[in-house]
Amino acid sequence: MSSIRLVVLGVILRRGITHGYGVHQDLAAWRAETWTSVKPGSIYHAMEKLETQGLIRAGDSGDKAKLGPSRTEYAITPEGKTEFLKLLEGALTSNEIQLLAAGIAFMEMLPRGRVTELLERRLEKARESVAFLRTLPTEPVPADPSKHPELVGMWVGYMEYAVDVTRHLLQSLRDGKYRFADETSAWEEKTNA
């Protein structure tokens, strides 16, 4: 559920004010179902829950030109922004692939230095995991699954990949790629000059 919370809060924060269909449209356009577990039904369920928890607030769109009832629009609350930032920071240190993907999708909403710090923490945790996993005993005919060479090998390979991906992303950040929250005005000044 935390990756869904993260992406829904992130879309609402990015848009400022939006309705549920706007969140759905963004996530569909981004093909979010390929890198998260977000499904159309989970978006609306998450929005209901976020509203109940006071993380987003609903209001009438005030669209008088449209026939029928007006749409409910949502805005993030200060508590919602705090929750979003907490989830985002947790996602950038996570080894859970869908949560990490959601974190990368919204990483530019943090300062570059903070993202670098979080990814360095993730890299260290991933390296520690690789070192630990390599110490696990295996058996050619395993007595229990924890000693299955293919299972242990899969996890070693996964965590080695996590190390490589994180190193690559950190290098991209050090090379000045992407635009972050603390760089927005400077970036806009350069592009508008």
UniProtKB/TrEMBL annotation:
InterPro entries: Metal_resp_DNA-bind_regulator (IPR052509), Tscrpt_reg_PadR_N (IPR005149), WH-like_DNA-bd_sf (IPR036388), WH_DNA-bd_sf (IPR036390). Residues 9-84 form the Transcription regulator PadR N-terminal domain. SUPFAM superfamilies: Winged helix' DNA-binding domain. It comes from the Bacteria. Pfam families: PadR (PF03551). PANTHER family: PADR-FAMILY TRANSCRIPTIONAL REGULATOR, TRANSCRIPTIONAL REGULATOR RV3488. This is PadR family transcriptional regulator. It comes from Paenibacillus hodogayensis.
